[in-house]
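Illustration: GBD/FH3 domain-containing protein.
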Amino acid sequence: MRRTRDFESDEYLNTAGQYETRSRRKKFHTLTGDEQNECTSSGYTACSLNYDMASKKPVCMKRHLDSDTQGSGISKRQIPQRARRLLDLFPKSGISERWGGKLPKSADGIKNIPSPTGQFLQNASSASGHGVTKQNETRGKFRIIDSISSTSQTLNGSEAMRGSVTQMTDEEVDAAFKELLEQMNIKGEKLRALLSRDMAKKRQMVSQSLKLNVAAQVATKHPLDFVQRMERVLNLREDGRGFLKDFMKEMKVQLSVEKVDWIAEFGNQGGIRYILLIMKRLVDTFRKSEMPEQEEDNASLLFDSVKCLKSIVNTWPGMDLCFKKDSKMFACLVGTLTVASRKPPLDFWEMLKFETLSLLTVVAFINDDQFEVRGQVLVSLRDALLNELTEEGRKRGCERFKSIVDCIKKSKRLDVVKKALMLVNIILDVRDPDDTSTEEGKAEADEAWQMRMHWRSEFMRAGLYDCVEFLESCSVESVKAQYDTFCHNKEADFSELIQRFELIKGEYEDPESCFALLHSSVKNSKAEGCLLSILQHLLLITDDFVVRFNYFRLIENCISEIVLPKNCVDPDFRGKFEFTQDIFQTVDSYEENEVIQQLNKRLEYATQLKNEALAKQSQYFMKMNEFSEEIKGLRKHIDDPSAPVPEPTPCALPPPKIIAEPTPELPSATSVPGP
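Result:
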């Protein structure tokens, strides 16, 4: 019996191709004889194993080289990494327990497992205490050593490749450097900036990339390994839940660091299909039953699955595979969002909502119409998302945008609210065509405006009415910016609505044409009965001229407030419609407007009379001066008869009017009602 050491140093190869060392505290545990036999069957000492108290299995740590590995041409530090990679995939201890006792322990049964490590499993099974022989022990040891020898040959070959970089022409270096950047998923302005570097820097980076790629071959697993492991774990059903959780975390990390070719091969081997299958099973589990004890674990699995999809979609091959017409990605993401939005605002649900909304926002923002990649026109991403939202709303019997609005209404994290508002704005961002001068362009612009109006009203009916007060009072800049964008687009569409109303008033000026058009639009529909009822109610209005006028002005104002709302959305049909303007104030304003019009007429008439009086006054004054001169001449003639008699002064001016009573066409001052 041997005791494990208290501390153990673990050397591993990081993603940069460099060896690092980490220390891990180990719990004391006594290994049994069978466990030591299992661990020593590969040629390594049992004292260098760490025993995991949770899984009750020995975990391979730093091991010592056997004498048979000398001269293999590989560093001792690379042995633990290779051995750990194989043993982590299928640990020898507890193989029967991991597979639920379903796998046969014979060599033939293990050979039939479609795995690149099938031969290693055969040796591990034969070394697990069932007829262990010296020949089997030696075979298991040399199976790992053969793999290490092949790795050594790869490393030796890489030295020649790095040496050939200096012999490459500039054109070959440029091509290799561009391919390197594409493999690193670098594009756009950053790609062009890196391509403009000097040739010496490019050669250095290509050489370093070759070195890192060769070193990473020791630590990197093949995509097919993950796909086959995923298939086996899915076949375990409930027994493999713990293994699935660990596997999804490992795959999430692997997809986030691998290059484009690795992700492309992973998708072509069926990895994306298995990820979506995992998500579908988890969503169905949440819909069918409530399991509080497994809720957090299942939410964690969904979170890791969404992160995996996010890493895949971040590459062109990933988008090529995820955006095909038969892809179930949108269905799984919408289902995940629906499940998370109905849950209480716990941390793990909030994290899941944030990641799901982030991925949906990116996908919906890619293109307004159709996504084209490698010459193949794929499904319209906006239509695919809306179709899945519609199907989800049909299943739940609610508005299709309710899951998005619930993330705004029920979430306690403002970053989730921001992402949900961003998704709302992206869905409503149906842009007008560039050329609206043609008939086709006008039709497309009209359709885009109708879609924006309709979808915005759907969001409001789904519960966004209840969030307006919170969003208007929110002081966080990121949330405020998204809500301001929502309001700005809404006001722009409202201006378009007012312009359309002005065009209608200019085009349809008589009641007959308006009624004919309105009746044809509702004929043979449920709305035809409502229109008839409205007209029948209007026939009940009294015959009094003044009262009837006030009736129709009031009805006009009510219809205008319903049809031309300032918030540019449909009314809230869930309850009674509330008018924002007081009815009595409206009626009083109409009456006051009528009185003001009469007073304005009187003022205009009085001003006219005043101007005429001033003109006549001037004429009278001039005529009076003429009469004054004539009087002076007559006085001189009286005093001196020899003086000439002045000529008589003509006068054709009319006599002034005396206004003692108001004119008959204007109301008297006493007839004007008081305020």
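Reading the tokens back as a structure: The mean pLDDT is 72.
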